User: Fold these one by one.
Assistant:
Number 1:
Amino acid sequence: MEKDMKNNGMEKKKMEKKRKAKRDYLIFLGFLAISLISKLSSFDLGIRMWDNFLIFAKDMVLILPPSFALIGLFDAWAKRESIEKHFGKTSSPLRFVWSVLLAMTTVGGTFVSFPLANALYHKGAKYSSIMTYVTASSLFMIPMSIMEASMLGIKFTAIRLLASLPFIIIISLLLEKHLESTNYVLPLMEK
């Protein structure tokens, strides 16, 4: 009886997954149809939407494969003990420095930082280290900071980065405290 209920639940999940996949394909086909109609009728907004999609898709094709290869190498080569030592429960407050330094070298923004944060989590990093990393990867990217400094000046960039850092750390600590108080655990990935 229990086995039948479990199989029934798995069947429902599979059906739901298929239904979602169909819906996603229909949305994409609708987007393609609207784009084609816009192109044929010279509707400027639709044409710009398609052009923006192509730019975004090209960026994804160029950034994601090498990034995921590097994340895979990180996952395979970075030892759990090293991650726990520098980012985990027994780490010192220096973990925030490591998190920011790792974030500064992450190219690809949140497309890359979230999968890498997941790898950090599964290797034993504390929530505060992960939150600091994810937030800092949006704010402290080296290419963005160089461009910002060239346009707005080094003083502005330094003030922005230094003023952001304490807030990132404080918010990360508060979020970690909240997540731990609610016994939150990240869900396992489905196979």
Number 2:
Amino acid sequence: MYISCSTVSGAVSGWKSNQRYISRIKNKRILTIQEITPEDTWSIRQRVMWPDKPIDFVKISDDDQGLHYGLFRNERLASVISCFVNQDEMQFRKFATLVEEQGQGLGTHLLNHVLDVAREKGIRRIWCNARRDKTSFYARFGLHTTGTSFTKEGIEYIVMERSLE
């Protein structure tokens, strides 16, 4: 069974009025997506993306200007993504799901949420720097490679994008 909502108007205890969220119940597991702080993202970013680096390595200088979303499974933060809007473009960065939660569709729910938010904001282009081994995941959402790539800390990244027009 799935239950889903997109806006709360004070109907759920503990939620601010009009706070955007998605809640789904599947096999008695509650999934909720909500806006979070940059600080909330750092631990998962570090554990998943750069476990051998200090926490400061995963902080972004403009984190305070981003939109950060977290997917909670049974009230436990399991996946994070950070979005940065520049006019009619949005870049999503630092998309990470706890290793033990991967392969269960959590990242799919979270990225679909970000795509919905981008459309609501009138974003015309969404893009990311995808690790080469993750490009097939992003392709499932209509993102395609641009031909631009780079290497950071020995990991190859491919710029991927999608038009939302």
Number 3:
Amino acid sequence: MGTPPEFRFVTESPQLRGYLLALTGDAHLADDLLQECFLIVRRRAAEFRPDGDFAAWCRGICRNLAREAARARRRGPLGLPEDVVELLAEEAPPPSDADAQLVAVRSCLQRLAPRARELLALRHVDGLPPRDIAARVGWSVNAVSVAVTRALASLRGCVAAHVEVARG
């Protein structure tokens, strides 16, 4: 009969985690998806053909899970990075001023250079890793990472200033 898929999964898990990390760019999300993959492998073990490529089967499951996670992230609140959302929550004006907060975010996004907005959208809305963004825009991975970091810092500073002004 051979080794049960659950046991084979254990030997493949370091490579699968690396694969998920490359797809998502987020270690915590990769760990969560790896656990979800294990549950699917366990639940669908009978579907695996013994003569099939187990690692490829698992990578397919991982790829589908990563795609679904990216779709879910795009549907998230405002499509902003978590730390910007947290800053907004910490510095949030009274609920009656919620529209002003949204205006501040939109205003700050519009003040960014078009390329900076594009890079933020590719990284934090589309969920692309810096490697894929670099290939798309023709920059080095390091240049993309630096540009995204600077754009986020600029966005944070602008939003914080708007919130401070709104507080009076």
